[in-house]
Amino acid sequence: MINSSLKQLAAMLAGKEISSVEMTREFLKRIAQHNPDINAYITLDQEKTLAQAAVADQRIAQGNAEPLTGIPIAQKDIFCAKGWKTTCGSRMLANFIAPYDAGVIERFDAAGAVNLGKTNMDEFAMGSSNETSYFGGVKNPWDRTRVPGGSSGGSAAAVAARLCAAATGTDTGGSIRQPASLCGFSGLKPTYGLVSRYGMIAFASSLDQAGPMAKSCEDMALMLNVMAGFDERDSTSLNRAKEDYTRDLDNPLTGLKVGLPKEYFAEGLDASVGKVVQEAIAEYRKLGAEIVDISLPNTMLSIPVYYVLAPAEASSNLSRYDGVRYGHRAVEYTDLMDMYCKTRAEGFGAEVKRRILIGTYVLSAGYYDAYYLKAQQIRRLIANDFTEAFKQCDIIMGPTAPSAAFKSGEKADDPVSMYLQDIYTIAVNLAGLPGMSIPAGFADNLPVGLQVIGNYFDEARMLNIGHAYQQVTDWHTCMPEGI
Amino acid sequence: MSLSITDVKRIAHLARIEVNDAEAEATLHKLSGILGLIEQMQAVDTTGITPMSHSQDLTQRLREDVVTETNQRELFQSIAPAVENGLYLVPKVIE
Fold first, then answer.
1. Which end of chain A has fewer beta carbons closer than 10 Å to its terminal beta carbon, N or C?
2. Residue B9 covered by a domain
3. Is residue B21 in a domain?
């Protein structure tokens, strides 16, 4: 059961082979067995979860099931879920019980999915290794001495270790795709604006986007069908006609023009990762794709631009944590200013503080033009690179991350080296494009992902491209040992 | 440009985060590394480039000026650190 696709699980539920309560119990049992070591989940609430499963069973019995009804899904702990502790990986929100549901949570509830629990993450989604979580790091199920990637590291480990049927993540600079690559499964960051940000705790609002993390592209298409859609409570949600993301899954790839950006295969890419990616591209050639060389000349600038814009937006977004209305408040203080300063010093971890300080600095009087404005100008150059590239190809492929999973602690004390993990993923967020990572093989027994970057709103085609590959390869079915 | 300890303390104050001397020292080192990375931007000629604040060219949606939210004061205050008679409590600010 744990390796079954979402479609197979739905068929098992529809055929009364298993109830949602039984299926959910099975996953909860696995979580109880493996989570103490892997630490993929921050919060579990068996009672709430099983109550949802029981409701789903009634719905199935009544013949009102939708594709995800009764299926246990792990939710990144960045989504507010009413009555659930929602921590965002931070001490600041360690005891925060969300008083309302995020748009994404509402949509899964409406679809009858079961919320299996809230997954671990880098604090406020700031990190590429899950090591900044207040609730401790997450172990990569493929090698428990290594990181799962981040910031959606808990969701990543949960999918890889089969501690859920599928999971949600969010991606501000690579936080769905990089952990998908490091943990060997499929992850998709949709076009900015496709999935509601309402109730999704804000990091960098012009970049944050939620998406599915699952065992296959077919599963991701079913997840995205639930997740995508207009939400008037999110000011940048896009009001578009509803799409069925499964519609193009079986299209042939004949004549597909795949662009390979030379900058994604340059210095900095681990040779063993590059080899896996090249092999995947050879497979696409066999599937009928035509390979063209392209250039995204401003790729290297995406990291400095991101580390101005994202901290700037974060410093503004995180100013709401003042110890007044919710969240942590310092126990001892002398006056209001002291309460703010102590509350925030205690509530935030080192990486979050660094980013708030960087953001505060680049937005402070006298520096705005040199940093923030300059970064916004280069952001346009980076987006223009993609516009030019898509004149020559239909889709862009390359590595998701420059290396396979690194050792826990290896980069924890070196922010700049950690930031370079996101070299191939960040530009996609800056441009607002959809990006996906699918398992493409192994380098030294560690999973390696292939990144697929599409033009705006091209998710259905991207899922088709991934699905076609997953029909002729079995990397996506590989499982870590000992789980 | 390089930062000093005084700068770090000034920024931390603007951000309302208390830092002691040892933390300021460690932070200075890390922030300087990050600013070094950011400095790469200065080599790019951006004359005449329109800044891009957002990936979608959207205008702010407007709605009718009517009440859309229901009053949930008790629920929202149930998670507050300190409340009294429906008010959020903070240290005294007016003498």
1. N
2. yes
3. yes
ipTM of this predicted structure: 0.96
Q: Specify if B63 maps to a domain.
A: no
In angstroms, what CA-CA distances link A70 with A48, A53, A223, A423, B17?
13, 6, 13, 38, 45
- CB pair distance less than 8 Å for B38 and A371: yes
Quote the CA–CA distance of A94 and A72 in Å, as a whole number. 24
Kindly state the percentage of chain A with pLDDT values over 90: 98
Q: Is A230 on the interface with B (CB under 8 A)?
A: no
How many domains is chain B built from?
Answer: 1
The pLDDT tens digits of the residues spanning A369-389 come to 999 999 999 999 999 999 999
Q: Which domain holds residue B20?
A: 5-41
Kindly report, residue by residue over A213-237, the tens digit of the pLDDT. Answer: 999 999 999 999 999 999 999 999 9
Which of chain B's residues have a Cβ under 8 Å away from the Cβ of A308? 38, 41
Q: Would residue A181 show up in a list of annotated catalytic residues for this protein?
A: no
Q: Is residue B18 part of a domain?
A: yes
Residues of chain A with Cβ-Cβ distance to B79 below 8 Å are 96-97, 99, 326
Q: Is residue A212 within 8 Å of residue A224, measured between CB atoms?
A: yes
All structural domains of chain A, each given as residue ranges with its CATH number in brackets, are 6-254+455-477 (3.90.1300.10)
- Set A19, A20, A76, A216: catalytic member: A76
Hey, is the C-beta of A387 within 8 angstroms of any chain B C-beta? no
Inform me whether the pLDDT recorded for B95 exceeds 90. Answer: no
Q: Which of B11, B54, B93 sits opposite A364 (nearest CB)?
A: B11
Q: Model-level pTM? A: 0.97
Instruction: Dump pLDDT digits (tens) for A55-100.
Output: 999 999 999 999 999 999 999 999 999 999 999 999 999 999 999 9
